[in-house]
Amino acid sequence: MFKKLNNIGDCGIACDFGDEVNREINTNVIKLFHHVRKEVLKGNLNGILNYTPSYNKLIINFDLKKINSSKIINFLESVDFSKLNLSQNSKKWTIPVCYEFEMDLENMSKKLKMSKGEIINIHLNTDFFVYMVGFIPGHPFMGDLNSKLFLNRLKTPRVKIPPGSVGIVEKFCNIYPYESPGGWNIIGRTPTKLFNKQNETNPCLLSPGDLVKFKLISKEEFKILANE
Amino acid sequence: MSNYFFEVLRPGINTTFQDKGRFHMQHLGVAPGGCMDLDLLSIANALVGNSLDEGVLEFAYQGPLLKLVKGKIKIAITGDVFFQIIKSEKEKINGECNRTYVLDDGDQIDILATKQSAYGYMALEGGFNIKPFCKSVSILSRAQIGPNEGKKIQTNDKIDIKMNSENKKNFFTKIQKKNKNIIRVLKGPQYDYFSTESQKDFFCKEYKISNLTDRMGMRLEGAVMKNIVSANIRSEGITKGAIQVPADGQPIILLTDYPTIGGYPKIANIASVDYNLLIQKTPGEKILFKLIELREAEQLYKEHLNSISEIIKNIKEIN
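Output (structure tokens, whole complex):
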């Protein structure tokens, strides 16, 4: 259940679930997200344009021409959280990753006083949960990494990171869907497309609330998969 | 592909196809995008008799030079734009905004510049023959989404036209120019992160619009906002017109192509009624924020929509 509702400007509402970042809170955010999305797609809340879950908030954007905040607040206050379900909306994925494309393992190994292999093993054995997707299309923020791998962002972000790069910072792991600048510690690369423009009905592979496990592949396998 | 098209002789600085935007995808990282000035989208389409949401060409500062190849097409340009219709070397017509023109085979339309404004629009009777992505033809160039491979219009591109205009009647409407520099805002979710003095400064000192301004955001220069809580927050979903303040204390207004989530505290949010006024401001111009409450913002926006409906209702035939 959210702790409070706030207006953001005249065409946004924030459902605030408290300040902590953990799976339980985020799961509640995502349950509400699925519920709002379903209602909107059913045509019940005409005028709601977007619903964006993050760690501890759901932000709802709406068209002030068609609906106003009090109607949406009334709806949100009437939601019965005990009836919301996550599992039926959450998918499980296995994403191949080639660690030979790493850019930071050497440095990480020194900082963490751990071998490269140990770092890779922890990453491979983590059951990741997609907390949110965003900033740019298809970009997932996943957790939770073992605290042994806790690292900050790079002091100087790289100007260019190739698409598919897998990075870690603090307890989170991300995948860069596009070539972009970035400050995460890059441990490998996946040939899997996170955002596929050719697939118009479902262009984005991962959704908030999905579960992800990584699978080690070789450079050769990477090349084959990348060409598919 | 139809038989009629525009050949792009000069693309302009930032020319893209846009409509009202692409929704229900922000949770996947896709910003809604769409026309920066949605009122001018509606008016341009109404002038040429389209549905108000039909895709148009949006241009910024310098627009494109287009040559019609075959066919006959009715167009309308909205905004505050200097343009010419070139029938031949000898016959150049200085164009007027907010009215229609019929172009013939071989005619060129030269959209030279926006005047004291940033964005202008060109609508065609029947629309452009372009492929939508997820129900919208808006180009999000940062993510390369939308028609034209998600890219800005380039020289030598061919822009397909859906139909040949049979109707030769022309239409016009009048739009009152707004020159005020006061932009109304509502308190942002992290308004209390800023010192009392900064909050006061925010509403009584002018901000200058910097050169670092595009469809994604507008960087301001002026009074430094002193954050007394934390320069970072948990990343959260963004709303169009959010005014975020990074650690340097200089506000950034997030515009139509905003990043879908962000982790800077937001001191305020532009009221919908003044969004179009704001985005038409150009670098170097100064603005002053004025605080209003939610109910007032809703009421003002309603009145604003009525005024746009009036402009559309007052479209008249040119005799």
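The interface with chain A takes residues 21, 23-30, 32, 133-134, 142-145, 150, 186, 188-189, 234-242, 259-262, 266, 269-272, 294, 297-298, 301, 305 of chain B (CB under 8 Å).
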